[in-house]
Every structure is written in structure tokens, then in C-alpha cells.
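W.,

You were right to be curious about this one. When I first looked at the sequence I had no strong expectations either way, so I just let the prediction run and decided to look at it fresh. Below is the sequence, 187 residues in total, followed by the output.
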Amino acid sequence: MSVDVDRKRVNTSARIIGLWVGISSAVVIAAGVGALVAIILSHSRGDSDSHDDHDDHRFDRVVVDVDDVVSWILVFGIVAVVSLSLIAWATARRAVRPLAEALSAQRAFVADASHELRTPLTALDSRVQILERRLARGEPISDVVSELRRDSDGMAEILADLLLEAQLGAQHAAMPPTDLRAPSKKP
């Protein structure tokens, strides 16, 4: 179940981030194009030398001095590239944040599991060594076998607790946060 929940969370995050990048990029490009059109129009003049016979269309053509506009085009191109790079950087940071949190939770779980299992595993290893020595000497082993069984059961309980904790953690991550400030609904 947690794999499906994780997959759904990743897909939702990818859609949100893709939408955010698309809209942000469109805004940056639209603003840049609008600014360039405004600059081009402010640095242009009507073509009064038009050979049209109609006076109404005398200024339909616009002459732009390229020397005046090229530097503005370069500046806006650089600004657009820097802006889109910042958007990509911010989006990448936002995209990897859940992965960093998941890795941190995984490391904490592995550290907890290692700590919880180290003591019973050491006891189990010691009992196996005692059992081997007693077998080699021909001594009774029934008490050691009982202790091994008890240690084994203890490790099984710890493992069950760790697995339950991992499952509850996955289910808790899938649940939406609860707003504690919201008024409670009384029947």
C-alpha cells in the first residue's frame, strides 16, 4: 500500500512542479516579449516615405534602428535566461525536498533498527558460542537452547515493532495534515 501512496505523492509533486515551471516560464517570456515590443515601438518611427497612394495607410510600416534595439534585446535575453535559471533552481530544490526528507527518515529508521537489534543479536551470538563450547565438551545444552529461543523471540518482537513503525510512518505520511485551529464539529 505504501508504494502506491508514495507513487501518488511523487506524481502529484511532479505535476505541481511542472505546472509551476510552465506558468513561471510563460510569465517570464511574455514579460520579456512585451518589454521588447514596447522598446522597439518606442525606438521606432513611422515610414513616411511609403509609396502607398492612400494617406490612411501612410504609417502602417515602422522603421526600427537596429543599433538602438540590439543592446536591449541582448539585455532582455540575458535577464530571461537568468530568470529561467532561478526558476529551475528553485523548482529543483522544491522537487528534491521530499526525497531529502524520505532519505532522512530512512536513515533514522535504519539507525533505530540497528540500535534496537544490536543488543539482542550480541546476546544471541554469545549464547551460540556457549552452545558450541558445551556441545564440544559434551555438557548439557537444554538451558542454553531455551535462552536462545527466548532471545530469538525477543528479536522477532523487535522486528515486528520496527515493521509496524515503518508501516505507520508510511500511512502517517500519506495522511493530510490536521488543522488544529479549525473548530471541531460537535454532533
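Here's what jumped out at me. The chain has a mean pLDDT of 78. And, maybe more interesting for your project: The two ends are 33 Å apart (CA to CA).

Coffee later to discuss?

I.
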